[in-house]
Design a protein that fits this description.
Blueprint (H helix, E strand, L loop, with lengths): L7 E3 L2 E5 L5 H8 L2 H4 L10 H10 L6 E7 L2 E12 L4 E8 L6 H19 L4 E7 L3 H8 L4 E3 L6 E7 H17 L1
Parallel strand pairs: 5-6
Antiparallel strand pairs: 1-2, 2-3, 3-4, 4-5, 6-8, 7-8
Helix pairs in contact: 4-6
């Protein structure tokens, strides 16, 4: 897998580095109630704020990909705030509810970004933040081996996944992908 501006094909999905021409589509989906309610930052995002966000995230320590199937975007995934010295980064996944078999596609997309972080970026640990009320996401990422740390003062929990744990579950996912 390469991190340049080209699209990466992975088990029938395409992962394209986020471009400026994607951001208005992403913003419109991100502002929908069904997505907004699952996010830690739940404010409506203006076009100006989205442009600022895009400019600020165009750094080598941030890797954002739109997720496509049959030329239709259905998600955005990322590894951001990569710390090369500590070999850590924070993952994020946002899937839109407009695709048939979304749960299968989400499994592949999540696997892709974790594999990208560990194998391409050579990270040792990936962290995530998930709303405590987002039970669907909490249950979803546990399958990859994420462990959560209680955070009593926040409305979200912090999770982490070590490379060695991911490598143990990786064959199970690859075998599953061959079947669907």
């Amino acid at each position: 897998m390469e991190t340049n501006a080209s699209t990466i094909e992975f088990f029938g999905l395409n992962f394209t580095p986020l471009r400026e021409d994607h951001i208005e589509f992403i913003r419109q989906w991100r502002n929908r109630e069904e997505i907004l309610s699952k996010m830690i930052y739940r404010q409506i995002i203006s076009q100006k704020k989205q442009q600022e966000w895009f400019r600020n995230n165009q750094k080598s320590k941030n890797h954002y990909f739109v997720v496509e199937r049959n030329k239709e975007i259905f998600g955005l995934i990322n590894i951001k705030d990569v710390n090369a010295a500590n070999k850590t980064g924070e993952a994020g996944i946002m899937m839109f509810r407009n695709q048939k078999n979304l749960s299968r596609l989400s499994v592949k997309a999540c696997f892709f970004i974790l594999n990208f972080g560990f194998e391409t970026l050579k990270l040792n640990k990936i962290v995530i933040k998930v709303l405590k009320s987002n039970f669907e996401s909490l249950n979803f990422v546990v399958n990859y081996g994420f462990v959560f740390v209680k955070n009593e003062d926040q409305e979200y929990v912090n999770g982490y996944l070590h490379k060695n744990v991911f490598r143990k579950v990786k064959p199970r996912f690859l075998n599953m992908f061959d079947k669907f």
